[in-house]
Design goal:
There is one protein chain. With 357 residues, the protein is mainly α. The protein has two domains: 2-155 and 216-356, no CATH class; 170-215. Helix content is 78%, strand content 0%. It has 18 helices and no strands. Helix 1 runs antiparallel to helix 12, helix 5 runs antiparallel to helix 6 and helix 7 crosses helix 8. The protein starts with a helix and ends with a helix. It is a multi-pass membrane protein. Keywords: Cell membrane, Membrane, Transmembrane, Transmembrane helix. The chain crosses the membrane at residues 20-42, 63-86, 92-114, 126-144, 172-192, 199-216, 236-254, 266-286, 306-325, 337-355.
Length: 357
């Protein structure tokens, strides 16, 4: 019994050390700074105010589908924001697009997926998350048109939000700032010698510091630091504990256990993975080691189709979140939303499996 316990603890420790050594410094640290900058320098109100039923569809669904990259939220954070949108007069289509895409297109999760599970899967996750978010929102809007009719009546009585003031700094500064941060991330994760990467990272860091000193107020830089720290303290401890626990679980349930269920790109496998993702609760980023370690994607046990299906369904919905959503928009709409997530995630995974051949 003691030998089993020691073996599982060692497995958990080895798994955690492996993830820390390979992915934290070059991947997660820059990603946290980018996510913090997005939260600090891009105003949420500029995104959320375009979701009304009368808003232009291309604008409403387009913004809602990429909102997660701007808001950098996880599934637990998206629910109160979704509730606020729903109550303040958002159309049901853009609202559910936002609900699905917020955690699914999270910049931290996309970067981490590409780094740990491979660039192809990370790219497929980002692309299919945007497509599925829009499709699910359009279907919800078509099925529940009466909701938008009622919402338009409420919107007529709502006070208008005044527009914000103009920017004092040149318009190129913020885009250049983000380009440099992304450049640091790309250089850090590139498969190249450190003698090549270090000068590039150093130059980009100096450029970032120059912009911060000469074009940003001290309060803005402080807010960036606090936003980065807030994301880190919320997510990183859970990731550490979860990765360690998954390593221990792998000692008792090796990835080969799941081979018969997720080892092929069949529609049955992707559907099962989608259902599992919809039921399980996985904190932000933890879905990556779950798929890589527990289900064995990195060791070749889990096929790409089921992996993508689980990535598309897991972060956006879970049994606890569905219970909360049902209190916001009712059991009927919630049930339809859950079914749509399961079906479209499974189909996306199956399509990805076909592409892989």
């Amino acid at each position: 019994m003691i030998d089993i316990l020691i073996g599982s603890l060692l497995m958990g420790w080895e798994t955690l050390l492996g993830y820390l050594a390979e992915h934290v410094v070059t991947c997660l640290v820059p990603a946290f700074f980018i996510a913090g900058a997005i939260a600090a320098f891009i105003k949420k109100e500029a995104i959320l105010k375009y979701f009304s039923p009368d808003a232009k569809k291309s604008v409403a669904y387009g913004l809602a589908s990429v909102s997660g990259t701007v808001l950098a939220v996880c599934s637990c954070t998206i629910l109160p924001m979704f509730a606020g949108l729903f109550k303040r007069g958002s159309g049901i289509g853009p609202a559910t697009t936002f609900l699905y895409a917020g955690p699914a297109i999270n910049i931290l999760a996309i970067v981490y997926t590409a780094k740990v599970l491979g660039f192809d899967l990370g790219l497929a996750r980002a692309a299919f998350a945007i497509i599925l978010a829009i499709v699910i929102g359009l279907v919800m809007a078509a099925l529940f048109r009466s909701h938008d009719v009622e919402t338009r009546q409420k919107m007529a009585a709502m006070p208008q939000v005044p527009a914000g003031g103009g920017e004092e700094r040149p318009r190129w500064v913020v885009p250049a700032f983000f380009v440099m941060l992304v450049g640091i991330l790309i250089a850090g994760t590139a498969q190249a010698d450190w003698m090549i990467k270090f000068p590039v990272i150093y130059a980009l860091t100096l450029g970032t510091a120059y912009l911060l000193i000469y074009f940003f107020e001290r309060d803005e830089v402080t807010e960036w630091g606090w936003e980065t720290w807030d994301l880190t303290k919320k997510i990183f401890p859970i990731l550490l504990i979860g990765t360690f626990a998954l390593g221990m679980l792998a000692y008792f349930l090796p990835p080969e256990t799941f081979g018969p269920f997720f080892g092929t790109n069949s529609l049955q496998s992707t559907l099962l993975a989608s259902i599992v993702g919809t039921i399980l609760y996985m904190p932000t980023l933890l879905e990556v080691p779950v798929i890589g370690t527990t289900f064995g994607y990195t060791s070749g046990v889990m096929a790409g189709g089921p992996a993508l299906a689980l990535l598309l369904s897991g972060p956006s919905v879970s049994l606890p979140s569905l219970l909360v959503i049902s209190r916001i928009m009712g059991p009927k709409k919630t049930a339809v939303y859950a079914v749509l997530v399961i079906v479209f995630s499974a189909l996306a995974g199956f399509a990805y499996g076909l592409i892989l051949g």
